[in-house]
Design brief:
RNA-binding, 29 strands, alpha/beta, four-stranded antiparallel β-sheet, four-stranded mixed β-sheet, Isoleucyl-tRNA Synthetase, domain 2, 939 residues
RNA sequence: AGGCGCGUAGCUCAGUUGGUUAGAGCGCUACCUUGACACGGUAGAGGUCUGGGGUUCGAGUCCCCACGUGCCUACCA
């Protein structure tokens, strides 16, 4: 069974099977390492742990999964994020790190509440009718039933998280930690309550933070209204984009320096419609250069006016309720929606002659991030976090380099935001979430902040204080996750080992929402924490001073857009469902696409054609494996090599015994690929890593190596011993290449790897096998040079054959000229390969250059001519040669200009000059040869 | 209004501190049912790197301007 792979690669069945296996076998579960059990535990006994002394602490790699909302469905952004995390996690795990990837979900206050409300609406029910307790119960039911959807989807991606440690932000232990944090901050004076203007969503009926407001430029109107000045026949004209708020005006402000209004200082205006006398005040809020220089002041409905109102002790008249409907203070407009009221107010103003002008104006409308409703600034009692003291530590952690942010431009963005941060509104008027641990005494009004529900008021002793009805902003609890998931506030061994986490990978969108908050909370609450020193050292962070930070590195990934570069959004209907892409091309191909397109700095315009290409790549690997298995089948049992005999190690490929040029070459190429891939991953260059593996697997291994060794595998009367050696080399090479690819394409590599081991793999999964590293002893520069000559020769002959339109099956004779001994060596030693791969009958050495003979190709090392009766297309050949000559001439001219420039010779590095000179020599030869050919065919 | 990014082959994108011949995938052309693979093979065509200045021995790469395009931040009525 193991060697019978179906002819065509079909990812669906394979992937589902392994995804299930990884979860069932708990392969990625990490027990808390005790202080004793951290000794290095190598994968094999062959001394492969080069550079890893035994009996030292193991390095640790910890990553927190940005918790998806329980309401979430997987989108491309998640998949990119998780692909990148999984690549790094698998890579570290294979390199012997204690690797913990912690998964969980977020209760997502507003989003989840909305979801359940919608469900209730279908049943004709309303949240308020059923009451808070019933409703929350209902949300929990919903969560149990549907909340796991996104995690199930994650399993399909192959995310190698530790499912044994899965959390939910409303779990009891995490909720306890949230209360603890609230109480401590309150006791430190960092949480306060007050009545301020906040962003209010009339649909969600709750306050939201600045970050949850999305601004949108809309073409709107600016209305100018004149207010009559009491006791004169003058008017003051003010402008507004929200005329309905004038009903709550309590003053008109002008600038003290504005001479237009000097004579009106101390006077009052009569507020139209409301017929209320309000003062003209002097305040800096009014800028003389803007409009009329006079501003209406509505302290209850505008944040600036609120501040101005406080400065002048003005009344705050609320004219709207929590649904943004006009209330009793709005007089005749009571009961109207804010926009109905706007229309009515404008009509009345116009009728009464107060409306002066209506101008087109671009307004930045604030909309609720969740539901899109236009936000209304509203005066209300809320809880706030005093943010500056927390921000200071968070700034220091990044400025000092204790936390690195990649790409680096995000560091400045983060810092700018932190410098200008405002206090954080943390209370939400929702029912779903962490209830604020505050109780109000109905008797004496005492405010009780406590970890557990108080049975009586500590001040007056009256029974049953009422708990505050608000819940906390969802980000308040998720901001604590790096330490609460490791057992905080207890001091745990988990925290000692896994905190600070190593890395956080996330999208730019939540840099402020989440990343910034985690840094603030981590630096504050984990101050004084020490990570296990030996492990910290082993992990490469021995030089870091601050172990309070929630993570040592942040990597911000790009945004996934659709093929037209549009941001994917439900309203646009251009959302690409990753599950659909996966069903069509496979998870491996989709992962590979995301990795290969993840160049830093630019967003990803996801293109399915790329995914199709990488599905083809998987198919290529699949078939190369089939070819390998086909040949293994033909080996006698006694000769069958163990696929990993000596192969399953870190450095190079230990079991590979090169005998031929292509053996030496592919071994060298493999090691170079391993070196490059490791380097790229170190720098989060997923695109480089993916492309490098692609080129190696397809371009080197399949296109050349397998083609070259075919005769050693397929010749009927071959030497069985050589055959076995060849197979051994192929299998060890292939096995190592699978390990190289595994982090990016976990499924296909797992499938083939198990097949190679005939059901008896050395580890339960390739994911637990070591990751290849370069062995410098296996670099072979001469082999690479010689192979390049061989490839040049073969390609030249193929090229000539194509041009001469030689029938594919016909074999041709070739004549080769070279004065280069190395070239001769290559030809002598690889005559058979040349004949077979290039369709050559005989190779003749000539002592004379073939350059002027028509059907020929030249490189600086050799000329090769095909002996064939068919005539070339003279005109086409002439054109080709002319074009080639032009290119050569251009390059020669270019090179000469530089080489004759003293400045260049003096200033350019020797290496560059040397290279140019060598190239100039080559070009001279090539030009002579090309000219000769042109002359020969009468050009 | 500020800030950031992008503009390279028909399409989607690479191109590391400026250094010899600007790469890949898809698409395109021609030929090929060669015992791993047509989701394949072989050989090709296709780019004055948006435009204009500048720095430099040397610019796709650095600077300035323009045009086009995308995003983020912002309490200016």
């Amino acid at each position: 069974m193991p060697h019978e792979l179906p002819k065509t690669y079909e990812p669906g069945a394979i992937e589902a099977r392994w995804a299930e296996y990884w979860v069932r076998e708990k392969l990625f579960h990490v027990e808390t390492p005790s202080s004793q059990s951290q000794r290095s535990d190598h994968f094999d006994s062959e001394g492969s742990g080069r550079g890893r002394p035994l009996h030292t602490a193991k390095p640790v790699f910890t990553l927190l999964l940005p918790p998806p909302n329980v309401t979430g469905r997987l989108h491309m952004g998640h998949m990119l994020n998780q692909t990148q995390m999984d690549i790094l996690v698998r890579w570290h795990r294979m390199r012997g790190f204690i690797t913990l990837w912690l998964p969980g979900t977020d209760h997502a206050g507003i989003a989840t509440q909305m979801m359940v409300e919608r469900q209730l609406a279908k049943e004709g029910k309303q949240r308020r009718d059923m009451g808070r307790e019933e409703f929350v119960k209902r949300v929990w039911e919903w969560k149990r039933e549907y909340g796991g959807a996104i995690l199930e989807q994650m399993k399909r991606l192959g995310a190698s998280v530790d499912w044994g440690r899965e959390y939910f932000t409303m779990d009891e232990n995490l909720s306890r930690a949230v209360r603890e944090v609230f109480v401590r901050l309150y006791e430190e004076g960092l949480i306060y309550r007050g009545k301020y203007i906040v962003n209010w969503c009339p649909r969600c009926e709750t306050a939201i933070s600045d970050l949850e407001v999305k601004h949108e430029e809309v073409s709107g109107k600016l209305w100018e209204i004149r207010y009559p000045v009491v006791g004169t026949d003058e008017f003051i004209t003010v402008a507004t984009t929200r005329p309905e708020t004038m009903l709550g005006d309590t003053a008109v402000a002008v600038n003290a320096s504005d001479e237009r209004y000097t004579h009106l200082h101390g006077k009052k205006v009569l507020l139209p419609l409301m017929k209320r006398e309000i003062p003209i005040i002097l305040d800096e809020i009014a800028k003389p250069e803007f409009g009329t220089g006079a501003v209406k002041i509505t302290p209850a409905h505008d944040p600036n006016d609120f501040e101005a109102g406080k400065r002048h002790g003005l009344a705050q008249i609320e004219v709207m309720d929590l649904h943004a409907q006009m209330n009793e203070n709005a007089g005749p407009y009571k009961g109207l929606d804010r926009y109905e009221a706007r229309a009515a107010v404008l009509a009345d103003l116009k009728e009464q002659g107060f409306l002066v002008a209506e101008k087109d104006y671009t307004v930045a409308l604030g909309k609720c991030d969740r539901c899109g409703t236009v936000v209304e600034p509203r005066l209300s009692e809320q809880w706030f976090v005093k943010i500056k003291p927390l921000a200071e530590k968070a700034i220091a952690a990044v400025e000092s380099g204790e936390i690195t942010i990649v790409p680096e431009n995000y560091k400045q963005i983060y810092l700018n935001w932190m410098y200008n941060i405002h206090d954080w509104t943390i209370s939400r008027q929702l029912w779903w979430g962490h209830r604020i641990p505050v109780w109000h005494c109905g008797n004496c009004g005492e405010v009780i902040v406590a970890r557990e529900t108080p049975s009586s008021c500590p001040k007056c002793g009256s029974a049953k204080p009422e708990q505050d009805t608000d819940v906390l902003d969802t980000w308040f609890s998720s901001g604590l996750l790096p330490f609460t998931t490791l057992g905080w506030p207890e001091k745990t061994r988990d925290a000692e080992v896994f905190y600070p986490t190593t890395l956080l990978i996330t999208a730019y969108e939540i840099l402020f929402f989440w990343v910034a908050r985690m840094i603030m909370f981590g630096c504050h609450f984990m101050a004084g924490h020490r990570q296990d020193a030996a492990m910290k050292q082993a992990s490469g962070y021995g030089d870091k001073k601050d172990d309070s930070v929630p993570f040592r590195n942040v990597y911000i990934h790009a945004l996934v857009r659709d093929a037209e570069r549009q941001k994917m959004s439900k309203t646009k209907g251009n959302v690409l469902d990753p599950i659909e892409v996966i069903e069509q091309y496979g998870t491996d191909a989709t992962r590979f696409t995301l990795a290969a397109m993840a160049a830093p700095g630019t967003d990803i315009a996801f293109s399915e054609s790329r995914t199709a290409g990488y599905r083809n790549f998987a198919n290529k690997i699949w078939n190369a494996a089939r070819f390998m298995f086909m040949n293994i089948e033909r080996v006698d049992a006694g000769l069958r090599p163990g696929a990993t005999e000596g192969g399953c190690n870190y450095a190079g490929i230990a079991g590979f015994r090169p005998v031929s040029l292509e053996d030496r070459w592919i071994l060298s190429r493999f090691n170079r690929a391993a070196e490059d891939v490791n380097k790229s991953l170190e720098m989060y260059r997923f695109d480089e890593a993916a492309n490098r593996i692609y080129d190696f697997f397809w371009g080197d291994l399949c296109d050349w190596y397998i083609e070259l060794i075919k005769p050693r595998l397929t010749s009927e009367n071959g030497n069985p011993e050589e055959f076995a050696k060849t197979i051994r080399n192929l299998t060890t090479l292939f096995e190592a290449s699978l390990r190289l690819l595994h982090p990016i394409m976990p499924f296909i590599t797992e499938e083939i790897w198990h097949a190679m081991h005939e059901g008896k793999p050395p580890k339960k999964s390739i994911a637990l096998a070591p990751y290849p590293e370069a062995d410098e002893m296996q670099f072979d520069i001469p082999a690479e040079i010689q192979m390049a000559i061989l490839q040049d020769l073969i390609v030249s002959v193929r090229n000539l054959r194509a041009e001469l339109k030689v029938e594919p099956k016909a074999r041709v004779s070739i004549e080769v000229f070279s004065h280069d001994p190395e070239t001769w060596n290559v030809i002598q030693n690889n005559r058979e390969a040349i004949q077979r791969i290039a369709g050559v009958q005989s190779v003749t050495d000539t002592s004379e250059s073939q350059a002027r003979q028509a059907p020929s190709r030249s490189t600086s090392r050799f000329d090769v001519r095909v002996d064939y009766e068919k005539k070339i297309d003279v005109a086409a050949e002439r054109e080709r040669l002319a074009k080639e000559l032009e290119k050569i001439e251009k390059e020669i001219a270019n090179g000469q200009r530089q080489l004759s420039n003293e400045q260049f010779l003096a200033k350019a590095p020797a290496k560059v000059v040397e290279g140019l000179k060598t190239r100039a020599e080559e070009l001279k030869v090539l030009r002579a040869k090309t000219l000769a050919k042109l002359k020969e065919i009468g050009g």
